[in-house]
């Protein structure tokens, strides 16, 4: 991968309750534009973690969120908060946070987040969102409508391990449920690129979604969706609903090439319906999917290839479902990223309840499941 002369200053470390700091790359002396803190819900909950980050970076904006596992480089961390502090030389970043009002919906919330953004100077937006209350499909859709052409959008939804109880997000505050944090990047010197891939392969014929409600799929080709799903899974159907993580759904919303993968969250035997982690619109084309361990690792490598370009920092967001499927081999997808990029850029990220990244020929951001997504950042020379 290509590198530039470094303008960003980046340091990384882990803060663990009762043990304190373990810094791998001190470089900032407590000064940073933004600090990212990724950790398990029980580690980031309350004020102890936030206080530790704010004491170390007293003049910095601190973004903190719960995850389904966090990583720096190829190391996965579940006991502490993975911390990445970023100081830029020429570019700039502004941050905002809002809480979802379920009655009002996402439109007014996104309008508030963007209220003070200089849209004519904006280069890229990253969003870290609650992963339980917020519909990631709708969140990306609303942002896409508001952002100017050419401005990218990426990020991810917070996680809660495999508990699926509550996710927490905060900006300079104790992280809470329902929060969404936005990072708005400015500056001609800033170079940002994204990649997203899963490694899953389709099987069985293409079907049309003939009845659905948001993320609940009722019928495919006029037949109960669950019945068809079981038909193609065969003996594997006995492992439902937990086994559904191994067989997600490929979805194409329209003829513009926008494709996503959807994870099955639950099934309803009585109604024959299936609930997914993102919307499954009526009229969409779908196919069932499967993958081997090696396929998933190859998918991470493909995401790295899509994001190719100059990089000083890589922010990865992978899916909790991938971690569950890969199990003890999870680090292999991180090692694939490191091998693809070489030893140059620093890397951090987390396992999520949904990944936000561009997709399709139009490059519009969508919610993905079961993918590895990457956002690369650097400041150009000159």
Features:
382 residues; alpha+beta; 19% helix; eight-stranded antiparallel beta sheet
Descriptive account of the structure:
The structure is a single chain. With 382 residues, the protein is of the alpha+beta class. The chain folds into 2 domains: 275 residues, no CATH class; 90 residues, no CATH class. Helix content is 19%, strand content 40%. It contains 8 helices and 26 strands. The strands form 4 sheets. Strands 14, 15, 16, 17, 18, 19, 20 and 21 form an 8-stranded antiparallel sheet that branches. It has a 6-stranded mixed sheet with strand order 2-1-7-3-4-11. A 6-stranded mixed sheet has the order 6-5-23-22-26-13. Strand 1 and strand 2 form a beta hairpin. The longest helix has 14 residues. It is globular, with a radius of gyration of 20 Å. The two termini are 20 Å apart. The N terminus is likely disordered.
Strand content: 35-45%
**Average pLDDT metric:** 91
- Indicate the radius of gyration in whole angstroms: 20 Å
Strand segment tally: 26
Domain count, please report it: 2
The main pleated sheet reads as: 8 strands, antiparallel
Total helical segments: 8
Estimated structural class? alpha+beta
Kindly state the percentage of residues in helix. Answer: 10-25%
Shape: globular
**What separation lies between the terminal Cα atoms?**
20 Å
Low-confidence stretches: 1-5
Annotate the secondary structure layout.
Elements: E1 9-16, E2 20-23, E3 34-39, H1 41-44, H2 48-56, E4 61-66, E5 70-72, E6 75-77, E7 81-87, E8 92-99, H3 106-113, E9 122-129, H4 136-146, E10 152-157, E11 169-171, E12 179-186, E13 190-197, E14 201-213, E15 216-220, E16 223-224, H5 225-233, E17 249-252, E18 259-262, E19 264-268, E20 273-276, E21 285-290, H6 293-306, E22 313-319, H7 320-326, H8 331-341, E23 346-352, E24 355-359, E25 364-368, E26 372-379
Parallel strand pairs: 3-4, 9-10, 22-23
Antiparallel strand pairs: 1-2, 1-7, 3-7, 4-11, 5-6, 5-23, 8-12, 9-12, 10-24, 13-26, 14-15, 14-21, 15-16, 15-20, 17-18, 17-21, 19-20, 22-26, 24-25
